[in-house]
Structures are given as C-alpha cells and as structure tokens.
Amino acid sequence: MKKILSLFLLVWLIAFSLLYVTKTIESSKGYGGANTLTIYNWGDYIDPALIKKFEKETGFKVIYQTFDSNEAMMTKIAQGGTTFDVAVPSEYAISKMKEEGLLLPIDHSKIPNLRYIDKRFLDLSFDPGNEYSIPYFWGTVGIVYNRALLGGKEITSWNDLWDPSFKNQILLVDGAREIMGMALNSLHYSLNDTNKTHLQQAKQKLDALTPNVKAIVGDEIKMLLANEEAAIGIVWSGDAAEMMWENERLDYVIPKEGTNLWFDNMVIPKTAKNIEGAHQFINFMLDPKNAAQNAEYVGYSTPNKKALEYLPKEMVEDERFYPSEQLASKLEVYENLGKNMLAYYNELFLQFKMHRK
Amino acid sequence: MRRYAYAIPYWLWIGLFVVAPIILIIYYSFFDIEGHFSLVNYQTFFTPVYLRMTVNSFWYAFLITACSLLIAYPTAYLLTKTKHKQLWLLLIILPTWVNLLLKAYAFLGLFGTYGAVNALFETIGIGTKQLLFTDFSFVFVSVYIFIPFMILPIFNALEKLNPSLIDASRDLGASEWTTFRRVIFPLTLDGVKAGCQAVFIPSLSLFMLTRLIAGNRVITLGTAVEQHFLVTQNWGMGATIAVFLMIAMAGIMALTGNRKWGVRQ
Amino acid sequence: MKVSRLYLAFVFFVLYMPIFYLIYYSFNSGGTMHHFESFTLDWYKDVFADTRLLIIVLHTMIIALLSSSLATIIGVLGAIAIYYAKHRWKQTLLTLNNVLIVSPDVMIGASFLILFTIAGIRLGFTSVLLSHIAFSIPIVVLMILPKLQEMSPTLIDAARDLGANEWNVLTKVILPYITPGIFAGFFMALTYSLDDFAVTFFVTGNGFSTLSVEIYSRARQGISLSVNALSTLLFLFTLVLVVVYYVITQRASVKGGQE
C-alpha cells in the first residue's frame, strides 16, 4: 500500500511541476493569449522563417498545426471544438467545404496583394470569383525516374510505365485519385471520368501494372526514391523538386497524355476567431518577396506572378515545374465527383492494392 | 449493490467510452455513404474483396502471433533464469517507449537495398535481397512491435510456477523435454493465452505498418477502416468493418477465455 | 547455458537495433538517415533551441503521467468489480473491457471526437487527457485481473471473519497482494500513452500537441535529425530512470529482508 501511494505521489508531483514549467514557458513566449493566430496547414508546407517574420511585423502569435490529408482536416473543422483561423485545403476539398458551409467569405479589400496573383489561377471552377479561397501553391502529378538506374532509358508518357523491363521498379503514391487518374489518362480518358466501364478498364490496366509496382507508399516516397530504393515514382511536382535537390540522377516529367493540375488555396474556416489576423496573414503570404521565399523553401510552384522575379531564373524557366500555358492547357483539375463516385474510385483502388502479382 | 459503488468511475468509463462508442458505431454501420438508412454496407462486406481481406488479416495476425510466441516463450523462460530478471524485463519494455513511426523509419533504413542488413548479407556472401515491402519484413517488424506484450504475461506465468513441481518431475525421472511438455507448458498456458490475445487482437487491425513496411502489399481490415474513415469518408462502411472486428474479438475472447472462472468461485 | 546467453543477447540486439540506428544518425552532419558524413552535435543544439518542440515533449510527459496514474486507479477499481461480479456477468464485462483494445485506433479517435463534440468539450489538453485515460484503462484491468484470480478467496473471508471492514479488506489484503499487477498496469498505460498517435491526432486541437503527432506531421519532409536527437535524449533519460528505479527498489527489498 505504501509502495503504491508513494508511486502515485511521485507521479503527480512530477506531472504538476512539469505542468507549471510548461505554463511558465508558454506565458513567457506569449502563447495562449487572445492575440494568437492558428494556422492549419500540411506538414512542412511553409518556411518557418516567414512565420517568425509575420509575428514580428504584426505582433500576432502564430500556432502552426498540421494535417496529413484533406479529409482529416475537413473532419476536424466540421466537428468544431477547435479554432483554426487559416487552413490550406486542395481544390476539390474547397468545393466540398463550400457546399457544407464550412468556410467564411474573404474580404478582398483587406488583401491588396491579390493583384500579384497570375490571372490563370483566379476565378477557377471550384471557387468562382475567389469568394472563399486565395491561391497558395499549385503543381502537377508526374513521373520521377532515375536515368542511371534505367540505363539511360527515357520516360515521356504514362504508357511507358508498362514496359516489362521495369519489373519491380515503380513506387506509387497512396492516393486513389492520383493512381486511378494515371490509368485513365494512359487510356486517354479524362481523370474526372465517371463512366463505370471506363473506370473498370482503368482498373484492369492497373492490374497489368502490378508486376512493375514495388510498393504503394506515402510521404516516404521522397526518401525512398532519393536513396535509389526504386527507379521510378509517381509523385507530386513539389516532392519531385525536393528529391532532385537530394539526388541529381533523378528527373521529372509531365507525361504527354496529360495529367492532374492541382491547387492548394488558403481559406478561412468557419471556426476562425481571429478573422482580422487571418486576412493579414493571407495578405502577408501574397507579398511577392514572401511568396518567393516560401516557394524556394517548399519547392512547389507559386501562383504569384510578381514573385517569379525574385526566384532563380533556372527555377522559373523550368518547364517541368512552371509548364507553359500551352502545356498547362492539357492538364486537368480534379472535380468534386460527389461522395458516391469518390467511394467507387477508392473501391477500385483498394481492389488494385489487393491484386497480387 | 453497495459493494459495486466504489467502482463508479469504472462504470462511468464503460458507459461513456465503451458502450456509447459501440452504439455509435453500430448506428453508423446502418447508413450508406449518402446518409440513408440501409444494409448495403453489410452486403458489401460479404463481397469477395472484403472476405479476402478478412482472411488475409486473420492469416497475418496468426503468423505474427505464432512467430511472437515462438520467440517470446524461450526469451521469457531464459529471463526468469537471469540474475536481475526484473531489470531485464524492464529493458524489454523500454524500446516500446521510442516512437513507433521513428522505429519504422529506422527499419526502412536498415532493410533498404543499401541498408545495414543487406550490407551484412553482402559480406556473408548471401547477396543483396529485397527485404522491404515483403511479407517477411512486415511480419518481422510487427513481431518486433508486439513481442514485449507476449513476453510479459508468459514471464509472469513462469514466475508463478512452483519450482518444487519441476524438481518433482525430474526426481520421477522425466527428461527436460517431458518436464517442459507435461509440467511447465501446461502450467503457464494462461500466460500464453493472455499473450496471444494481446498480440493477435491488435494485429487484426494494424494499419500504419502495412503502408510503411509492406508498401500496401498487405491490406488488413485496419487499413480498410482507416481508409473509410479518413479518405473515402464512408463512415458507414468503416463502422461495419469495425462491427465485425468487435465480433471477432468477442469470439477470440470466448475461445481462449478463462474457463477456470467458474471453478474458482 | 552458453546457447541461452547467446539467444538472449540476440533478442536484445534485435530489440535495440533500430534504436541504436536512430541514435547513430542523430550525430550525422549529413542531415539524413543514410550516408554518415561526419560527427556533429548540431541536432542537439536544435532541440534545445526549439521551444515549441520542448513544450510538446513536456505536454507528452504530463499527459502520459496523469493519464496512466488515473487510468491505474480506475482500472484497479474496475478489476476488483469484475473479480466480485457474478459469473454470468464476468465474460460480458471482460468483453466490454477489451473493446477498446481491439478497435482500430482511427475508429476510437473518430468516435471520441464525436463524443467530445456532443459533450461540448473543447479539443485540447482535456480531451487528449480523457482519451488517454479511456484507452489505458482496459490494459490496466488486464494486468491486474490475473493477480486477483491468483489470490485465494479464503484470504478475504479470513480477513472479514477477523472483523475487517470493506476498506480494510481493500487496503490491507487486496491492494498489497496485487501491487505487482498495479505497477505492471501503470507501466503498460504509460507505454500506450507515449506510443499513441492516431487517437490523439483526432482529439487534439487549439495548439495542443503530443510528440508522436508532431513527429508524424514533420515526417512529410523526411524526419529531421533533431527528432532523432530528441528521441536519443528521451531514451537515455528513461534508461537512467529505469536503472535508478531498479537499484532503489532492489535496495529497499534487501533492507526489508533484513528487518
């Protein structure tokens, strides 16, 4: 009995002194006050130096929280119970959140820097007039491959991946829309196709790819490809840029059949408490110099036209990451296909995952 | 009734965190993706895709449990023979306090084509093998994660064992093997059962490792639940799978259950 | 005996292999867990410069200590209640007890999230603490029950016959007997709490975070070696703690034996 009591007393003593220490540190750093701004973003999707700069300029304290999928983020916001002042969902999630009334309209008069954004990225179908969202980054889905490991073979199209000599060489990202989209594109269908025969065809085409697929993975794909664990990967453009910094033998290609063009935009969720701060933050991120700094850190393409002037020339002129308008016209944006269709895509993708070599 | 009053916090816990979520999950399992009441999720569960997934999950859970037991039993037995056995036992548990994701990343490095294990294989002369994204690495890492939960109950059961029983068996001329088979193992069966439950049941619903270590070449029911809750947002289907997981758990508990209870009371 | 030593050594080697791997690369100036370039302590400096990370570590420890101790108390009461329960209720109670162990974490997280929303509890410290207590209770019960079963019922009857009231029976007979189980339960609860990612991920909010959630969100960029450095420090800290704890209890029991 004495033993148990002393254990608990010790545990509580430690716990409460730790609690005290935490509170002291937090209050000395100014967290927890009304002056905070909570940002809900993808992991490592902003240059931390910019957050510090923003705090210094405006006096707000920024809490940076992260999510790993649009769906997890939407669940959190829909359930309430927590404050997020700014979030950064992808385009199809924005249209869904709009439908469900999870977003607050953005006051454009408070975002003068909006004029720097390239017109191409404004007024898109998922948010006409940018009533609820402001562009943050954009990019494509494409193929990363290791020239040296493939003995100098070139890859230019999705269909090249079915080459039998690539046995056990391909890593795929774990995303139903991305992989089904790839198969649909390789069959010259739209990646928003809802025709079930087409989708079945795409699934069968994927099954034929199984011998070449080594694994279907998440964010580890960057590390695995940079370490030459496999020669080919289906990835998002920004991840490709990162890998290529690490391993010079890698190259990125936008497949000639066309692929997905995606956008991540900043929004103000309905749970926001600091709406004024949220507008200031969005405006701050659109400042050309800040946008350029962020793009250099994150590696994705910035929609900020003026920011391009502050970026290294070889980066901006790289057609792989800043495709020309002509090339971009071949790319498609994901549409919100509705719950049922999305479930069907996921079901087929699940069946593909279960398909054994 | 007064005798049960002291356990009010526990009853509250059962009510709020066990019964309420179960009701919630059963309730959700009757709604399709559009939010209409239907039995479609149960129909879907009995399609070949999900049945195969169920068989897969059970098969891998069985493999993981069997391997854990095979390695854990001798380990627990040898631990009871060491001098500072409590310390060694604590040291078995200690690695579980290091973040799972970090350990998984370490295994990615160790098992990689250019990793430490393959370098070792190369020097021994076996040559480089693909270890990552295979059944082997998946079972290995899962066993690695779960083995402390198998060792602990077996260790405790062995500790309880009355040494005079073993001496008696030896005195009666039984060989080491016979003593083990006829005396030690049967008497530690409760610990083995507890360990098997502690490993088998969570193995059924493993998820993160199926992607990190098995590269989605292994799909378990847990993976599917995660998908339905987080990606498809088909909570109804996720809940339906969860209902079957709960039924499976109750079944396993009943099978390996403590039949002695009745005798004791 | 030689073979058995070798076997144990091998088991320990495998158990600690990934941890030593993490520790080794925490000194790598190269920045990744591949290709060791040269020795550096920069990652350790990073850890101490990163206040947010330190706060998260403190949060993690506070949650682990509070949740596991509270879960242990509730678990002890629960185990005793199950022990006393009538036979036909026992299996039902046990099954209910184990539901949270078998349920996939994601589902527990999602259902707790809905629960907290209904109850109007703000996501953050309280919701995370409550969830951790909730999923730790069953394992505590499972650790204590075998000890109770082992205890002969005549012990309690004897105590009652000698005029002990319920409270005395509990503190003088039952608790001392199941102390090892209580300790084991506490350590298991601690383990579960430190390890949990999925449930916390769902029920956290308003700037509150635990280490595993933070590591998961940092993993997108390929885990920074400062996380390795932090884990090394925590690992060494717990290692020292375990050894010190062992030496103290060892001394205490030696003394106890002499008296």
Automatic annotation (TrEMBL), chain A:
UniProt: spermidine binding residues: 92
GO cellular component: periplasmic space
Entry-linked SUPFAM superfamilies: Periplasmic binding protein-like II (SSF53850)
One of the Pfam families matching this protein, by short name: SBP_bac_8
GO molecular function, one term: polyamine binding
Coiled coil: none
GO biological process, one term: polyamine transport
Subcellular localization, as worded in the UniProt entry: Periplasm
Keyword line: Periplasm, Signal, Transport
Keyword Signal: yes
Protein name stated in the entry: Spermidine/putrescine transport system substrate-binding protein
Automatic annotation (TrEMBL), chain B:
Transmembrane parts of this sequence: 12-31, 58-80, 87-111, 131-155, 191-214, 234-255
Any one GO cellular component localisation term in the record: plasma membrane
The protein's name: Spermidine/putrescine transport system permease protein
Subcellular location, principal: membrane
Domain of life: Bacteria
Stretches assigned to the ABC transmembrane type-1 domain: 54-256
PANTHER family: INNER MEMBRANE ABC TRANSPORTER PERMEASE PROTEIN YDCU-RELATED, INNER MEMBRANE ABC TRANSPORTER PERMEASE PROTEIN YDCU-RELATED-RELATED
InterPro entries xrefs: MetI-like, MetI-like_sf
Family membership: Belongs to the binding-protein-dependent transport system permease family. CysTW subfamily.
Keywords from the named record: Cell membrane, Membrane, Transmembrane, Transmembrane helix, Transport
Protein localization: Cell membrane
Taxonomic lineage: Bacteria, Bacillati, Bacillota, Bacilli, Bacillales
Membrane topology qualifier: Multi-pass membrane protein
Signal peptide positions (record): none
Entry's Gene Ontology BP terms: transmembrane transport
Annotated coiled-coil segments of the chain: none
Automatic annotation (TrEMBL), chain C:
Keyword Membrane: yes
UniProt keywords, alphabetically: Cell membrane, Membrane, Transmembrane, Transmembrane helix, Transport
Keyword Membrane applies: yes
Top-level taxon of origin: Bacteria
CDD domains per the UniProt record, alphabetical: TM_PBP2 (cd06261)
Membrane topology summary: Multi-pass membrane protein
Pfam families, sorted: BPD_transp_1
GO biological process: transmembrane transport
TM region(s), chain numbering: 7-27, 53-84, 96-121, 127-148, 169-191, 229-248
Cited InterPro entries: Bact_Polyamine_Transport (IPR051789), MetI-like (IPR000515), MetI-like_sf (IPR035906)
GO cellular component: plasma membrane
Locations listed in the record: Cell membrane
Chief subcellular location: membrane
Domain (ABC transmembrane type-1): residue spans on this chain: 57-245
Membership in a protein family: Belongs to the binding-protein-dependent transport system permease family. CysTW subfamily.
Protein name, UniProt field: Spermidine/putrescine transport system permease protein
Native source species: Anoxybacillus tengchongensis
Phylogenetic placement of the source organism: Bacteria, Bacillati, Bacillota, Bacilli, Bacillales
